[in-house]
Design brief:
417 residues, alpha+beta, 5-stranded mixed β-sheet, 15 helices
């Protein structure tokens, strides 16, 4: 590659990164403005009964303070602090508003957009936020008040409702990843499972498609989610659905979308098989399973599959049976472009998003409502979505949509008549 091409490539990459950074900063600025506005509203509501000597509302909004910059993880974000005016006439001295989110001396902060949902899913109640945020942000940065957090939650719930009702008629998804996510927090009702569907569109962009409050991973709950997606415009079936062994999803899928190929997640299947083997055997068995789904061709994978069944079937029939019953669905990815294999062999887009959350959540003394959990999961998903990578070989998706046949990941060239 010539020096000129290298320079042009670097300029193009820098331009893309600059545009992406600007986009993320804009989102952070809106998020911060929303939080501060909610804090001001809570402050004014707390002094709604205060009157001046003329009997009028004592505290009123009075424009904004001069704009300033806050350093964040994505660079400087410009903010304008609302100003509250005390019209006077009351006892006890002047009432002043001082933001706890953006105090005058604060010049650096972390992302509240991610922090609040994380803390909720870790089981921290509204009353504990001040201490928690002070510990995580900075000892000199007081946290959000319960009233402000409550207002933010209300805003996020409205955003969730709007998102769940959005029009999807212009969307076309080629791949679906589906999974049910549980959290170790006390709920008002047991057995809540958050049903998640991530889709890859015809340009290879991954996005959160569906989020549903389900009863465990039941067939009925999955069917309701899929029907809701279809009602709002996702009428064309995806070409491939990736998921674990939860029977509810696989039973519901053909009732809503026809002719969808199935790909069982190899990470889940590996864990299921190893759980049926003695610990001393698991490391070696895991290597043999790895040889199956990392094989270059279906023929090689079939041979590795047969070897595993022969090697472990006699002594450990349950492990062999667990693997063999999903043979066709485990090897479906060979009929799709090789560039997509690393994306579609597992339900990793969902697993990676929630892995850390699952590790950090614990049972809290305070019950959380189902709606609160769903809202916090929604916020985390939107935050994670910003970091999701486009599918490799995205240009191949048009061929998948067209129905072109792939053999061992390579496009099958039809012979001329």
């Amino acid at each position: 590659m010539s020096n000129v091409n290298v320079v042009e490539l670097q300029k193009s990459r820098q331009s893309f990164e600059d545009q992406l950074t600007l986009l993320l900063r804009d989102g952070a600025q809106r998020m911060l403005a929303t939080a501060v506005e909610a804090e001001v509203e809570a402050f004014l509501a707390g002094h709604a009964d205060a009157r001046n000597s003329a009997g009028l509302q004592r505290l009123v909004r009075n424009g904004h303070l001069p704009q300033r910059e806050i350093q964040t993880g994505m660079g400087p974000v410009k903010v304008k602090m609302p100003r509250v005016r005390d019209t006077g006439g009351g006892a006890g001295g002047r009432i002043r508003f001082s933001s706890k989110i953006l105090p005058p001396y604060l010049r650096r902060t972390k992302s509240l957009e991610e922090l609040i949902p994380w803390l909720y899913l870790k089981g921290i109640s509204s009353g504990d936020f001040s201490e928690a945020l002070a510990a995580l942000l900075d000892p000199d940065a007081p946290g959000l008040s319960p009233a402000t957090i409550g207002r933010l939650k209300d805003i996020w719930k409205d955003e969730l409702r709007a998102w769940q009702g959005r029009d999807l008629s212009k969307k076309r998804y080629v791949y679906f990843w589906a999974d049910g996510v549980y959290f170790n927090v006390r709920l008002e009702e047991d057995k809540q499972c958050i049903l998640v569907i991530i889709g890859a569109d015809e340009r290879g962009r991954k996005e959160l498609v569906g989020l549903w409050d389900g009863y465990r991973e039941s067939e009925q709950s999955w069917k309701e989610l899929l029907l809701d997606l279809k009602r709002r415009g996702v009428v064309i079936s995806p070409k491939l659905a990736v998921g674990d062994g939860a029977l509810g999803f696989w039973k519901a899928l053909p009732q809503v979308y026809s002719n969808v190929r199935r790909q069982r997640c190899w990470v889940h299947k590996t864990a299921n098989v190893l759980n049926k083997l003695p610990k001393g055997t698991q490391e070696r068995a895991k290597a043999h399973l790895h040889q199956i789904w990392m094989a270059e061709t279906r023929a090689e994978a079939e041979r590795a599959f047969d070897f595993f069944l022969d090697a472990y079937g006699a002594k450990y029939p349950k492990a062999a049976g667990c693997l063999d019953k999903d043979r066709e669905d485990l090897l479906a990815f060979y009929d799709f472009p090789a560039e997509h294999w690393k994306h579609i062999r597992t339900s990793n887009p969902i697993e990676s998003t929630f892995a850390t959350v699952r590790q950090r959540t614990y049972r809290t003394k305070n019950c959380c409502s189902r709606q609160t959990i769903l809202t916090m999961v929604f916020r985390l998903c939107l935050s994670a979505q910003k970091k999701w990578r486009r599918l490799d070989g995205s240009q191949r998706l048009a061929e998948v949509i067209e129905g072109i046949r792939f053999v061992d990941g390579v496009r099958e060239e039809r012979k001329a008549a």
